[in-house]
Amino acid sequence: MARVTSKVAARKKAPAMALPFTKRNYQILGLGLLVIILGYVALSQTPWDGTMPLVVAPILLVLGYCVIIPFGILYRQKSETQPSTTPATDPPQTN
User: Fold this and answer.
1) Residues 73 and 25 sit within 8 Å (Cβ to Cβ)
2) 28 contacts 72 by C-beta, under 8 angstroms
3) pTM
4) How many CB atoms lie within 10 A of CB 78?
5) Can you tell me the distance from the alpha carbon of 16 to that of 44, in angstroms, rounded to the nearest whole number?
6) Angstrom distance (rounded) from CA 55 to CA 50
7) Is the pLDDT higher at 77 or at 60?
8) DSSP letters along 9-62, please?
9) Which residues contact 42 (CB under 8 A, 6 or more apart)?
10) Are 60 and 38 in contact (CB under 8 A)?
11) At residue 92, does pLDDT exceed 70?
């Protein structure tokens, strides 16, 4: 019985993970959703053989689904502290 309660207590004490998305990610995802909605609006225009449904709508839909939404998911801001790749001091050379 004590073993079960210790597992429950250990599970409750696990640190909460922070969400990986930032405000910028949500803005990019919102832009992608807006582009997709505009693509469907362009697709529903009256002359079905016009420029909007046949050219503009597929471009907007592919751009929204295949470019902007994945970019919004994968986007990460660069951290301000970059590790230095060059050594701080060079050893003296003896000839």
Assistant:
1) yes
2) yes
3) 0.65
4) 6
5) 45
6) 8
7) 60
8) HHHHTSPPPPPS--HHHHHHHHHHHHHHHHHHHHHT-SSTTSHIIIIIHHHHHH
9) 52, 53, 56, 57, 60
10) yes
11) no
Predicted confidence at residue 17, as pLDDT, reads: 75
Q: How many residues are listed for the chain in this entry?
A: 95
Q: Which residues contact 45 (CB under 8 A, 6 or more apart)?
A: 52, 53, 57
Find the angle CA(48)-CA(38)-CA(22) to the nearest 5 degrees. 155
* Whole-angstrom distance, CA of residue 74 vs CA of residue 65: 14
Residue pair 64/35 in contact (Cβ under 8 Å)? The answer is yes
Pair of tokens at residue 70 = 């994945």
How far is the C-alpha of 92 from the C-alpha of 70, rounded, in Å? Answer: 50
Which DSSP category does 90 fall into? P
